[in-house]
Every structure is written in structure tokens, then in C-alpha cells.
Specification:
heterodimer; A: 60s Ribosomal Protein L30, Chain: A; Alpha-Beta Plaits; 6 helices; globular; B: mainly alpha; 13 helices
């Protein structure tokens, strides 16, 4: 079941005009921002399907930029997000893509700051609800409904066990977990949705585990 | 968790509880939250809806494109000054539904029910029926849980996205949700709520999503108006004991299958239907400039 809460239906409280094209877009942008963990210097948005056809009318562009600046769906600064981006020196560009993807409301967001870059693919499935489908080329399924940690690690035996043992040590329950890799023995990604927020100490300890390269978290 | 309307109604009947209570208890169980937390979150949504309605019927709201705004207020004033034909309750719901969508189109703050494009129907009917039935604030919050319960089933078994299923999935779903909620508020049974939902949604099947210039304005605002009136009629039919020959879950399933076969030009791409009429195209050119795609 994709929708698990009554507030997925009666909600979100949001700045108009479209739950899928405005609120959903803002949420995908916000997840990208949380994963990038800092203000990007530049952002590129590749729009597919209905997003590509109607993004200006729905304020999808305004919402995506608002999201990567850290604005939530109900933040009234949203309507002025271009101005805020300008003030903060964040540049942005939009690309209307022709390809037909599985879902009509798909966006690929690329963020950059200095040498750091990140790429994320998200879909807006209706009523403001979103899913993250891809992160830096890794396929994943992240609803954004629960706090989650993302662990980039070397594809070696025992790494998954050591991360989950660490979570157990702090009595953190795993709700959903996915592991993916691009190539055997190379870089891999763990996505772990948990029931409660994870504090900095736990995060730091996970990042020190053998074969773990990077840990980020997104929260409710 | 209840997976369909039949399971929801059976839960109500076995436990002898209203739909709103089943929805609240499920939310408590699945998300491990307290009754108070859940109730007060919904009450805050109600407050947002109330502010949007009041703003839309009193202020001269105007969207950025200039295509919509002020009609909710206009209808409200007409009702005050004239003997209306279709009656004040229906028109009150219609004006408040339009008011909400006009505030939404003006990038104002609203609560999606279940989407922003369909955000007028549930609050529009709620704040109109309120004048007739004088519910407590708690009953008004419960109205939203009933709407949410039916929307929950539709979202999981069909779709609430215009891009996926057309307007039937948005205003259609909202209309069914509102109809079911009106029935509970008016003292009907859970089964009558399901009947109201079925009858309301049946009448919305096939409705396409064809926004002019891709904006959530034309025809969205007026589709919410008619959704609100439909919801009230469907609620009265159900309260009169009239039943849908096709069960509610099968209507929802039909809605899903119709959405699946709908061409993409009629699913929120702004390429077909009213968006493709000479006037629709002209508006698009006026707003975004000629040569715009």
C-alpha cells in the first residue's frame, strides 16, 4: 500500500496550486537538499512527462527551487523562491526532456557545490506524496515518510551486518531496508528507513565502521 | 489496515463504530501516535481550510495568470441578495468550494483533499453543511477523517493523481469522499456513506484532466463547484435509502481502469480537451507568450 496515513489524503497543508506539481516537487527538492547536506551552488532540473509539459503553469519550477533551498510545502517563502535563490547566489536551470519514463511526474535533480555533485531522480505520485527512485546512479525506493539513513559503502561481506548491529545497539528499529550496487565488489548503497530519528553520535559511529564511506540521513 | 470500502464498512459494523473512529484508530496503530496528536493535527488542517474558505468568499482573490478569482465571492453575494433557484445549501457549498480553489490558484495556503486541484470539494461541502446541521468542532474534524478514509482506499486501489487517472481521480475522488462524510455527519450509517461515495464517483467516471495552459484554474475551479453539488445530492440519495447497483469498490476499480486507458493528452498534460480548444490555446499564448510549447 503506497499511502499509509490519513494525512497523505487530507494534507499536506501547502502553498498552491498543485499537490503533485507544486507540493510534490518541493518535497523532492527538499529530500535532495537534505541528502546534499548543504546549500548547493548550482542546481539543474530535468523534467519528464507532465512535469515537462506543465511545470511553469503549476509553479513546479518555483517549488523545486524552494525545495533545494530547504523550504517545506507550507513555507510561504515558496512563491518567491527564485528571488531567495538569487540572494543566496544559487544558480538554477531547467531542461524539458522528451523521454517517456514510467511515471508521468518525474524529475532528475543535479546539485553541485565546489567539487561535490549529487544526482537524484524523484517521482511525484499524487496528493503531495513522492518517492525517490535513484541516487547517484543507484536504484532505490525511498518514500520520504520515515527518517532514513543512506550509507555508501564498499561492497564487502559483513558491512550490512555491522551497520545493522550498530543500529540495534542504540535500539533503533529498521522499518525498511534496501541494498543496491552498480557492480559486484565496488561501491554499494544501503537505504535504511527507521522508526525514530538518529542522533549525530550514532551517525558518527556508523561512518567509522569498516568499509563505510559516507553516511547521510533524512528525517521526517 | 482496511484495504477496501467493504472491509472498512464491515469493521464499522462489527465494532459498532463510525467510520471516523475506525480511521483514527488505524492511524494510531500504524503510526504509533496518540489520539490527541492525530486529532489536533487534523484540527489544524481544518483551520487552514476555514481560513482559505473565508478568504475566498470575502477577498477579491486573483490568480497570477488572471484566469480565475472572485467567482466564489460573486456567488456568495448573489445568494445573499437573491432568491436562488437551486437552494442556498448547495450554492453555499459551491461558492466555498470555488473560493478554496481560487485561493489555491492564487498560490495561497490550502490543505490538499486529496489534492490541491481538488481541494475545494471537501471543505466547501463541510462549511456549507455546517450551517445546516450545526455540528460541534469535533464533528467537523471527524468529517475530515471520514473523507480521509475513503480517499485512502481510492489512493491505494486506484489513483488520486490527475496525471495518472484524469480529473475523475482528483475531483471525482474528492466528491465521493465528501459525499460519504456528509452522510456520517447527517447521522447516516457507514454503509450509507459507502453508497454515497459509490453514487458520487459513478457520476464522475471518465472525467478528463485538461487544464488550460497547464494551470490548476480552468476548468478546475468550476469542476470543484460541480463536485460539491454532486456530493450533496449523492449524500441525500444515500440517506433516502437509495443504493448503487454497482458496489463502491467496483466503482473505484472501474475508475482505475478508465484512467489506465485514458490517453496522456487528457491526463494533466494540457494538450487535449479544453486546453486544446482555440480559446484554451489563446489563453496559453497570452500567458506564456506565443510559440510556447
Amino acid at each position: 500500500m503506497k499511502y499509509r496515513s490519513v494525512f497523505d489524503i487530507i494534507g499536506p497543508v501547502m502553498v498552491g496550486p498543485s499537490s503533485s506539481h507544486t507540493a510534490g516537487a518541493a518535497r523532492i527538492g527538499l529530500v535532495a537538499r537534505q541528502l546534499f547536506q548543504k546549500e548547493p551552488e548550482w542546481a539543474a532540473f530535468h523534467l519528464y512527462g507532465s512535469f515537462a509539459k506543465t511545470y511553469q503553469g503549476h509553479g513546479t519550477d518555483v517549488a523545486l527551487v524552494g525545495g533545494i533551498l530547504g523550504f517545506d510545502t507550507f513555507d510561504t517563502r515558496m512563491t518567491e523562491s527564485f528571488k531567495y535563490a538569487e540572494d543566496k547566489g544559487v544558480s538554477y536551470s531547467f531542461y524539458e526532456e522528451e523521454a517517456n519514463l514510467d511515471h508521468p511526474n518525474t524529475v532528475k535533480i543535479r546539485l553541485g557545490a565546489g567539487k561535490e555533485e549529487m544526482e537524484l531522480v524523484g517521482i511525484s505520485i499524487g496528493g503531495g506524496k513522492v518517492e525517490i527512485k535513484e541516487l547517484n546512479g543507484f536504484e532505490l525506493r525511498l518514500s520520504g515518510n520515515h527518517p532514513a539513513i543512506l550509507v555508501v559503502h564498499d561492497d564487502r561481506y559483513g558491512t550490512i551486518a555491522s551497520v545493522s548491529t550498530k543500529l540495534a545497539e542504540y535500539e533503533i528499529n529498521i522499518g525498511h531496508m534496501e541494498v543496491s550496487r552498480k557492480e559486484q565488489g565496488k561501491e554499494a548503497l544501503m537505504v535504511i528507513e527507521v522508526d525514530q530519528n538518529i542522533d549525530e553520535k550514532t551517525m558518527a559511529e556508523i561512518s567509522k565502521l569498516e568499509h563505510v564511506k559516507k553516511v547521510t540521513k533524512i528525517h521526517d | 489496515m482496511f484495504r477496501n470500502v467493504e472491509e472498512l464498512v464491515e469493521l464499522c459494523e462489527t465494532k459498532n463504530l463510525p467510520i471516523s473512529e475506525i480511521m483514527i484508530r488505524q492511524e494510531m496503530e500504524v503510526h504509533e501516535r496518540s489520539y490527541e496528536e492525530i486529532f489536533s493535527q487534523m484540527e489544524r488542517n481544518l483551520d487552514v481550510m476555514e481560513r482559505a474558505v473565508n478568504r475566498g468568499i470575502t477577498e477579491q482573490v486573483k490568480s497570477v495568470s488572471g484566469l480565475t478569482g472572485g467567482d466564489g465571492k460573486k456567488l456568495n453575494e448573489y445568494m445573499q441578495l437573491n432568491e436562488t433557484l437551486s437552494g442556498n445549501l448547495i450554492l453555499d457549498a459551491v461558492s466555498k468550494a470555488m473560493a478554496t480553489n481560487e485561493v489555491n490558484a492564487a498560490m495561497g495556503t490550502i490543505c490538499a483533499t486529496p489534492t490541491a486541484g481538488a481541494a475545494g470539494v471537501v471543505p466547501g461541502t463541510l462549511f456549507a453543511v455546517k450551517e445546516k446541521l450545526n455540528p460541534s468542532r469535533e464533528q467537523m474534524v471527524r468529517y475530515l477523517f471520514v473523507s480521509g478514509a475513503f480517499g485512502f482506499v481510492v489512493a491505494n486501489n486506484a489513483s488520486i493523481s490527475g496525471a495518472a487517472g484524469g480529473c475523475q481521480a482528483e475531483v471525482g475522488s474528492a466528491t465521493g469522499m465528501a459525499a460519504a462524510a456528509i452522510v456520517e455527519m447527517a447521522g447516516g450509517t457507514p454503509r450509507q456513506s459507502a453508497q454515497a461515495m459509490a453514487m458520487a464517483l459513478k457520476n464522475m467516471l471518465g472525467l478528463v484532466c485538461d487544464p488550460v495552459a497547464g494551470l490548476v484554474e480552468v476548468p478546475c475551479v468550476k469542476r470543484n463547484a460541480f463536485g460539491a453539488s454532486n456530493a450533496l445530492v449523492a449524500a441525500d440519495l444515500a440517506l433516502a435509502g437509495i443504493e448503487s447497483r454497482i458496489p463502491c469498490d467496483e466503482v473505484i476499480d472501474a475508475m482505475y481502469r478508465i484512467g489506465e486507458t485514458m490517453p496522456s493528452t487528457l491526463r494533466e498534460t494540457g494538450e487535449g480537451g479544453l486546453a486544446a480548444t482555440p480559446t484554451g490555446v489563446r489563453y496559453k499564448e497570452q500567458i506564456f507568450g506565443t510559440g510556447s510549447k
